[in-house]
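F.,

This is the one I mentioned.
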């Protein structure tokens, strides 16, 4: 047991954010009192977001799950009776065994995402359990699927420009990202670069905080980033701004890309996107003339039918313009590819050839899939609040013949429909090993307090279930120490990394902390080149790569709904802490045409469902766009539905990603 005196202990934030803050936690009498940032991670530089500052409310709030419990009332009411851990795990092991014996392993569906989990609490002992059960596999496509496929197809898993190096850039283009809400440590770096003379361009359908400080803000209609990027590519080729010498030496498919961009004149792209042609040309000239120039490509542009092609076109720009080979030049998407560590290899079992379920289609699967899902195991996720077609997901969770397990830290909207809830630890209560995907750093976190209530960590519970079901094998890593040792052993630098994690508490990949693209590393593709038209992506896209699919809006539902992140939640994590009503935002012209004023109660509807909430007018949105943020819970609206109830379960052109921004809605006064 820890001392009862006040201690200040080191930790690392694993939440789904590019930055991976180094932390210090003040603990008094075994309870977390305060969380601050430290300078151990140079990128995060001693300050943290308000979300993590509020983490003690998450640890000790009324919604925290403290004991295992079994449903005793109707699904959705959140009425449970307490169980012991042995009773809960005996019941769960029995159900897993019964379903497997009667219906086959594919009738079991593990549902997790794990963006806020590290190497130890995702795809280790959990993967071991479900692979050996022969369960259905889950394609985690709700976020970063299309972007991941695009960047891998063009560049392989090549790390991006280090965020710290943006101070060297003369032009910074932030496209589809809002660092003011997610990845806040890039903001002061951009502001420093601007003070040094850098120009800033933001491409986003709304006027984000950075857009208000930008030299140029382009606000495309949702789903039209692809035509804008192709028009820039065409302009570069036509104007002499393309670096043909670089393309000849380092890329394939340049001629084909040029041909596919040819139809997209500035005027056509302007008409399609709603951006002035002159503004697109201004960006093109700035990009051609600025050295170094960097693109911070986010994930907003992927959340529609054209998401994969749009990302590919954006990421092709630095290749076409020859922006690599200099510090502060190139692109950043995710730098997770800098690490070659694979937690799933610790499962000790190859992935079985069972059915692969796209998580965006879970609602449909729960209602009509064959074989039917009989046991749903939800962990590291809150599907009712995060998946599209929310009403289908809800109807599936209401099935009396579906046994749902939710293993979570708090009573989520999904957990209220569970048959069995299990309390999980937070990162302050268990061991974790976390790499950043913005910062190129790996850090280790140890528990700073004893688990609250009877909460237990993922690696312990899934290991216990393996033992109860007779699926464990002697000598397999199961404890955090064993898992960490086995993971680091995958690297030739494992011993060195272990020493650096011990002191100074942070380690970096082989490429170092701030590598330069096309100097310190090159695309890890088969030929070491950029593939601007990868054949496999061209075959996968329904109309071929870079082919534009028209807007899905109708006369009945003319408004494009976007659901971006806010500074209140990480996906849906912390949603229980925000109890106020969350309004749908609209441009004053759109609201005026419908006789709406701020504070009016409205019905926002699409062909998928409806949300009843208040409305707020905002000049930060372009006309034709409404906004209801992601991450909100049922208590944030008048009817308990969220933006996910309005989102279709259609898929992106690459990788089967989610199309949240293809929701087309109408707003009416109640």
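My design for it:
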């Amino acid at each position: 047991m820890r001392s009862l005196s006040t201690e200040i202990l080191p930790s690392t934030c694993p939440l789904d954010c590019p930055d991976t803050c180094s932390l210090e936690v003040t603990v008094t009498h075994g309870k977390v009192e305060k969380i601050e940032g430290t300078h151990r991670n140079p990128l995060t530089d001693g300050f943290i977001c308000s979300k993590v500052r509020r983490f003690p409310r998450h640890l000790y709030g009324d919604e925290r799950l403290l004991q295992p419990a079994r449903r005793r009332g109707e699904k959705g009411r959140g009425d449970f009776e307490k169980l012991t851990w042995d009773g809960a795990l005996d019941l769960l092991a029995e159900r897993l065994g019964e379903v497997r014996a009667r219906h086959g392993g594919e009738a079991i569906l593990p549902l997790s995402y794990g963006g806020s989990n590290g190497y130890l609490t995702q795809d280790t002992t959990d993967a071991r359990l479900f692979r050996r059960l022969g369960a259905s596999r889950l394609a985690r496509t709700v976020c970063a699927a299309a972007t991941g496929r695009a960047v891998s197809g063009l560049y392989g898993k090549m790390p991006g420009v280090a965020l710290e190096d943006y101070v060297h850039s003369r032009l910074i283009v932030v496209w589809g990202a809002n660092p003011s809400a997610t990845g806040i440590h890039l903001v002061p770096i951009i502001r420093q670069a601007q003070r040094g003379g850098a120009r800033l361009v933001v491409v986003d359908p709304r006027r984000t905080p950075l857009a208000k400080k930008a030299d140029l803000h382009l606000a495309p209609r949702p789903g039209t980033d692809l035509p804008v990027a192709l028009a820039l590519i065409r302009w570069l080729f036509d104007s002499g701004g393309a670096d043909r010498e670089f393309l000849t030496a380092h890329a394939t498919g340049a001629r084909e890309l040029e041909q596919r961009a040819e139809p997209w004149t500035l005027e056509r792209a302007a008409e399609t996107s709603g951006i002035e042609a002159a503004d697109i040309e201004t960006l093109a000239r700035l990009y051609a003339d600025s050295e170094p120039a960097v693109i911070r490509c986010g994930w907003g542009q992927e959340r529609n039918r054209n998401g994969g092609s749009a990302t590919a076109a954006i990421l092709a720009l630095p290749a076409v313009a020859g922006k690599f080979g200099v510090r502060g030049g190139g692109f950043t998407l995710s730098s997770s590819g800098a690490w070659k560590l694979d937690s799933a290899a610790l499962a000790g079992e190859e992935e079985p050839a069972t059915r692969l379920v796209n998580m965006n289609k879970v609602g449909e699967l729960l209602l009509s899939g064959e074989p039917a899902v009989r046991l749903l195991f939800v962990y590291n996720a809150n599907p009712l609040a995060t998946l599209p077609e929310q009403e289908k997901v809800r109807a599936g969770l209401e099935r009396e013949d579906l046994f749902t397990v939710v293993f979570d830290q708090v009573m989520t909207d999904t957990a209220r429909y569970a048959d069995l809830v299990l309390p999980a630890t937070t990162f302050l209560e268990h061991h974790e090993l976390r790499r950043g995907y913005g910062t190129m750093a790996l850090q280790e976190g140890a528990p700073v307090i004893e688990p609250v209530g009877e909460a237990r960590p993922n690696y312990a519970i899934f290991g216990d279930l393996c033992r109860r079901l007779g699926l464990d094998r002697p000598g397999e890593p199961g404890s955090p120490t064993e898992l960490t040792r086995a993971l680091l052993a995958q690297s030739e630098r494992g011993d060195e990394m272990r020493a650096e994690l011990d002191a100074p508490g942070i380690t970096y990949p082989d490429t170092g902390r701030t590598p330069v693209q096309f100097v310190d590393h090159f695309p890890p593709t088969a030929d070491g080149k950029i593939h601007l038209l990868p054949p496999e992506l061209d075959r996968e896209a329904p109309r071929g790569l870079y082919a534009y699919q028209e807007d899905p809006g109708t006369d009945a539902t003319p408004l494009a709904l976007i659901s971006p992140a806010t500074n209140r939640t990480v996906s849906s994590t912390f949603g229980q802490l925000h109890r106020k009503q969350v309004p749908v935002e609209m441009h004053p012209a759109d609201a005026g045409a419908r006789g709406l004023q701020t504070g009016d109660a409205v019905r926002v509807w699409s062909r998928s469902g409806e949300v009843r909430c208040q409305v707020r007018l905002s000049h930060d949105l372009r006309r034709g766009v409404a906004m209801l943020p992601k991450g909100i819970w049922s208590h944030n609206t008048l009817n308990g539905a969220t933006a996910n109830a309005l989102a279709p379960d259609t898929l992106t052109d690459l990788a089967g990603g989610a199309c949240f921004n293809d929701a087309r809605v109408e707003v009416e006064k109640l």
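The chain has a mean pLDDT of 97.

Talk soon.
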